[in-house]
Each structure stands twice: as C-alpha cells, then as structure tokens.
Design brief:
CATH topology of the largest domain: Receptor-associated Protein
CATH architecture of the largest domain: Up-down Bundle
Helix content: over 70%
Order of helices and strands: EEHEHHHHHHHHHHHHHHH
Distance between the termini: 88 Å
CATH superfamily of the largest domain: Type II secretion system (T2SS), domain F
Number of domains: 3
Radius of gyration: 29 Å
Mean pLDDT: 82
Low-confidence stretches: 46-63
Strand order of the largest sheet: 2-1-3
Number of helices: 16
Shape: flat
C-alpha cells in the first residue's frame, strides 16, 4: 500500500505533519478528514513500493538505502517500547513519528499496516527482504512463538550493534592506509604524467642514447599521459565484471575458495566466517530456534560457499544422529578449538554460551590481526613509494651525469 506524507491542521488550527498509508491520494485525504485532520498537502513518499523501479539499480536508490545501523536502532527502540508494555501497533506508530528517513518511514508504515490486517510481525518483515535478513525474520518469528518478542529484539539489536562495531573497527583500521595510498598514487601520477615529461623533453631533444631506466620512465610517462582513461576504464570494467560473474555458482565457488586460501587474509576470512557462525547460531538457539533450523539460517550468514557446504553436511549428519561437534570435526575449515568448545557446550548443556564465546574469541583475533596488518602496511607503503620515487630520480639524474662526463 502506498505511503503518503501529509501536512494539515487540527480542529484548533495547530499544524500537524506525519505519514499515512492509503490506496490513493484521495483515500489519504479522506482518511485524514475522518481522523479530524484537515489536509493542506498530501504527497506520496519518494521511495517506491517493493517490485517497482526502485528494485533496479539507480543513483536515487543507492542514496536512499536503509543502513544496517538504522535497522538495529529501530530494533532497540521497538524492544524498549514492547518491554514497557506498549502494544505493537502503537510502538510502530511511535517509530514512524521518530524517523526522518522517508524510506524507513514508508517501510515501518507498511509493516504496521500489515500487522493491522492480522499478519504476524515476522511475516510483515519478510515482505522487505532487502532490509530484513532471514536471520532477523526467524529470530522475530521465534520471539513471537515464545511470547518473548521484546527479549528477542533486544538480542537482535545487540547482535547487530556488535557486528556494526566490528565492521566499524575494520574500516577505521584501514582508513589511514587507504587514504595514504590514494594520496601517494595521485602524487606519483601527477609527477610522472606532468612533471617528468617537461624534464625528459630536454633529453629526447638532444638525440643521444639514453640509459635504460630513463627510456622506461619516458615510455611509462607517455603511456599514462595518453592512455590514462584506458586504465580507469579497465579498472571499472574489471570491478563490474567481477561483481556480475560472482553471481555464477562456479565463479562464486572459486572466489570463496580463494578468500580462504590466500596468504595472510585467508585465515582472517576464515575467522570472520566462524565468528558469524558462532554468533548467529548462538543467538538463534537462545531464542528457541531448533538446531537444524538455526544451521539453515547460519549457512546464509557466513557468506562463504565452502563453509556453507560444511554446515549442509553437518545438518545431514545431525539428522542421522551425530553430534554437532562430531559433524564439524572432519572439516578443514573449522578449527579444532571450535570443535572442542562446541563439544564441551553440548556435553554441559551450554551450547549457546560456548557459541557466543567462539564468536567473541574469533572477533578479538580478527581485530588483532587487522591492527597487525595495518601496522605492517604503513612501512611497506613507505618502502614502495620510496622505491618508485628513487627510480624516477635516478632515471632523471643518469642522463645528467652522462652529459657532465661528455662535457668533462
């Protein structure tokens, strides 16, 4: 159902603004008048409903997307309102009035309308798969089934906030090296394409045989000056090609295998996947979701085909009567420490606690690896930049030294 933003006046002449769902603009105005509001302006929100043009890529859709942080913020607020005894529909109404994002207002209004029609909150959320993941929806479904929706929403908010914090630390750690790399590449490009040609033009006009480094520098400079757009086009095309080729199962399998086997980054990617597995499975089990259903959800969270296959095999073996630890013990992608902790959790009846400890341990290890990696990147970047600048300087000085010798 379309969602409209309105501005109007109440019976006392006070200006009101808000959001309302209706089948059309006329229906929205009638609905407002019936509630005692005289509409002054009614317009449909800029975002389009599911299945419309917004599902395709557009610049507007890119800037209007809902960020994960916003989703977990409203999750925390909804948990607080429900825990205080506020009914679900009234809580959703309160969220609509608090949010300034037109797209998020529209989505919450549609969820509220669906709940008003008698649907469950989980079903209403499932109508927006780009915003709410299967993990999120199944957690809400388990909370509704157990009558502890506010508790489950609080767990969801904590899970999302932890994931966002980890992602934020990862970005913060890479921000400085990325910025320095961009500055360094820009300076070198300017040096080689604009400064070097003016200097080397003197050497080429002398028609003397130039040293090999100088010849290489001149050729590189001429190529960058003439075909810089080809390099940018090739990089852009490569990114697009990689993005769309990853949709093919065979390419995606090779890419995920490479992510786990690449030196330095491979173990880090493995730990990130295991941290997601532990956090997701532990949260689902705490919310009352069965182990088999939780494994099916967790396989989509790990974001790696190879580890997802391990979880599929584990699911089959658990159906056959094997333990979770025993079914994971044969995989090369699941460390022995993880298997042992899961085994202890199964034997003690505290599997959820152990899974969360696994996630905590791997997240800390990932963070320490990132810090170590970024501390190594800085001297490596300085060394590479120094070598390139040194090559440029030597390439320019060699012909000058040769001319001095000839003159002498």
């Amino acid at each position: 159902m379309p969602v409209y933003e309105y501005a109007g006046l109440d019976s006392s002449g006070k200006t009101l603004k808000g959001i309302i769902d209706a089948d059309s603009t006329v229906a929205a105005r009638q609905k407002l008048r019936a509630s005692g509001v005289f509409p002054v302006e009614v317009k449909e929100t800029l975002s389009r409903p599911k299945g419309g043009p917004s599902d395709t890529f557009s610049l507007f859709a890119f800037f209007q997307r809902v960020k994960p942080g916003e989703v977990y913020a409203i999750t925390r607020q909804l948990s607080t309102l429900l825990g205080a005894g506020v009914p679900l529909v009234a809580s959703l109404d309160s969220l609509i009035s608090q949010k300034s994002s037109p797209l998020l207002k529209k989505i919450i209004a549609q969820i509220k309308e669906s709940v008003n029609q008698g649907n469950s909150l989980a079903f209403s959320l499932s109508q927006h798969p780009k915003i709410f993941s299967n993990f999120y929806i199944n957690m809400v479904r388990s909370g509704e089934a157990s009558g502890s929706l506010d508790v489950v929403l609080a767990q969801l908010a904590e899970f999302g906030e932890n994931q966002e914090a980890l992602r934020g630390r990862f970005k913060a750690a890479l921000a400085y090296p990325a910025f320095m790399s961009l500055i360094g590449i820009s300076v070198l490009f300017f040096l080689i394409t604009f400064i070097v040609p003016n200097i080397t033009k003197i050497f080429t006009e002398m028609h003397h045989t130039l040293p090999l480094p100088t010849v290489v520098l001149i050729n590189v400079s001429n190529f960058l000056l003439s075909f810089w757009w080809v390099i940018l086009l090739a990089m852009f095309s490569g990114i697009i090609l990689l993005k769309y080729s990853k949709k093919r199962p065979s390419v995606n399998y090779i890419w995920d295998k490479l992510k786990l086997r690449i030196p330095v980054l491979g173990p880090m990617n493995q730990q990130i996947a295991l941290a997601r597995f532990g956090r997701t499975l532990g949260s689902l089990l705490q919310s009352g979701v069965s182990l088999l259903s939780a494994l099916q959800i967790a396989r989509n969270i790990v974001n790696n085909v190879l580890i997802a296959e391990v979880l599929d095999k584990a699911e089959d073996e658990i159906r056959a009567g094997k333990s979770l630890a025993g079914s994971l013990s044969q995989s090369r992608w699941v460390s022995s420490m993880v298997v042992q902790m899961i085994s202890v959790g199964e034997q003690s009846g505290e599997l959820e606690t152990m899974l969360n400890k696994i996630a905590d341990t791997h997240e800390r290890e990932v963070e320490s690896r990132i810090m170590a990696l970024t501390s190594m990147l800085e001297p490596v970047m300085i060394l590479i930049m120094g070598l390139i600048v040194g090559f440029v300087v030597i390439s320019i000085l060699l012909p000058i030294f040769e001319m001095n010798q000839m003159i002498g």
